[in-house]
Amino acid sequence: MATHTQDLPPKGGYSPINFKRIPARSYFSGLHIFIGYGIATAIGSYAYYHTHKVIKKEEIEMRSGEFALLPLLFAERDRAFLKQVRANREEEEKLMANVEGWETGTYYGEPIYKTVPKNKLIDPIIQEFYAHGPSKALTRQAFFSSWV
């Protein structure tokens, strides 16, 4: 049978345990941190200022392009509107050709708007405007505000 030996401390005892606080090594002093902050702020401000100038120039360019294109876009919109109104009028003439006493743009010869001059265009309601067009166009325009 083997003999057991007890684990004992080394001769002369264990070395003392170091339990004192060891301060962290300081890489920067307070002055260096403030100087670094000032330099970083100056570089950031410089970059922001120049980027801001570039963005402003691009915004002016985009706005100028928009101002140049808006009259063309409005003219195209108005042209498409008048084209649809004319198509509606021609379709009405074709549909009501066999109806006795029917005059296009009136209700059996009576003007619809009695106090409005004949050469003034009255904007039709949306259902009347798309009456002879595709139903998908009416749905798209009528519920456009629901999509936005």
TrEMBL record:
Localization of this protein: Mitochondrion inner membrane
Transmembrane segments: 27-49
Cellular component GO terms held in the UniProt record: mitochondrial inner membrane; respiratory chain complex I
InterPro entries in alphabetical order: GRIM-19 (IPR009346)
Major location category of this protein: mitochondrion
Superkingdom of the source species: Eukaryota
Pfam families (UniProt xref): GRIM-19
Main function: Complex I functions in the transfer of electrons from NADH to the respiratory chain. Accessory subunit of the mitochondrial membrane respiratory chain NADH dehydrogenase (Complex I), that is believed not to be involved in catalysis.
Stated family: Belongs to the complex I NDUFA13 subunit family.
Subunit composition and interactions: Complex I is composed of 45 different subunits. Interacts with CARD15, but not with CARD4. Interacts with STAT3, but not with STAT1, STAT2 and STAT5A. Interacts with OLFM4.
Name this polypeptide is given: NADH dehydrogenase [ubiquinone] 1 alpha subcomplex subunit 13
Organism this protein belongs to: Halocaridina rubra (Hawaiian red shrimp)
